[in-house]
Amino acid sequence: MGGRQSRGFSNKELNEVSQRRKSSGRDEQPSLSSAAERIRRHATVHFGYSTLSLAMRSLDETPSELWELRELQKLNLSMNSLCSLPPALGALDNLVILNLWGNNLSSLPPEISLLKKLRVLFACRNRLSEVPEELGCCTHLEVLSLANNQITGLPSSLAAMHNLTKLNLSHNRIVHIPTCVYSMKGLVFLHLACNRLETIADQIQDLVNLKILIVEGNSIHTLPKTLCFLESLELLNVDFNDLQNVPVELYLLSKLGRLACHPLDKGLHIIHNPLLKPIQEVLQGGLSALYNYLKPT
Predict the structure, then answer these.
(1) In three state form, how does the secondary structure of 150-180 look?
(2) Buried b (16+ CB within 10 A) or exposed e, 50-76
(3) Above pLDDT 90, what percent of the chain?
C-alpha cells in the first residue's frame, strides 16, 4: 500500500538541527527532543514501514537526535561521507532495513547486534576490512551486501544466519570462501566475483538451495565435483578464472540449460578460461554438446 508523502529533508534544515545540537548546553535537554521531533516530521510511511532517508546529504556524522527515533523501520544513510557510526545505532531496535551504501565506514559498531529485527543490510562501497562478530546476532537477516570493501574474511558467528538468502561479497580481498558461508543453508544467491579465490571447498554441496553462484574474476583453477550436486543451480558464472578443465559430473547440473554470455542470463558462464582441448572445442557445440561429452557411456 502507499504511504503518506512529505517534502524532502533539506540540507539547510539538517544543518540547523546539527548546529542547534552543538550550541545547546547540558541543561537544554528539551531542545534535543525538539530537534528529534524536527527530524521525525520528515519520516514517511512507505509500504507500511516507518521510513527515513538521509541519503546524499554530505553528512560526515549523523545527528545524535536521529537515534531517538526508535520507531524507524527503514533508514537510508547512503551516499554520504560517514566514517563511523555511534553505539547509539543499537537504539533503533525496530529497524528492518539499513542502507549504508557508499560511505567511508571502516567498521560497524558492535551494537549492531541489538538490531534483532534487521532483515536487509547494505554496507557495500565502504572501507570495511572486517565485519564484527556481533553481526552474527542479527539472525533474521535475509539480504547482506558487503560488496566493494576490503574484506578478507567473515567471523564464524555468521554461521548462525540461517535465514540469509542473498549474500554479496564481490569486489573484496577474499582468498578462501569463509567457512561460515557453508553453514548458510538458506542461501539462494552467492556473489563472490572479483576476489582472490583459488579454490572452492567441497562443502559447497551443503548450500542445497543455491540457484545463483557467481565467482567470475578470480583465480580458480579447479571446480570441486561436489559443486555438481547443487541440483537447484540455474546460473553458474566462472568467467575470467584459470580453469583448464571441468568436473565430469557437470552434466548433473541440468537446470543450467545453456551456455550464457550476457551477465544476467541463466546458464553456464565459462568464457575467458584457459580450457584445454577437447573441452574448448566441445563447447563450440553448446552446453548440450559438453554434457554429452562428459556423460559416461
Answers:
(1) CCCCCCHHHHHCCCCCEEECCCCCCCCCCHH
(2) bbbbbbebebeebbbbbbbbeebbbbb
(3) 82
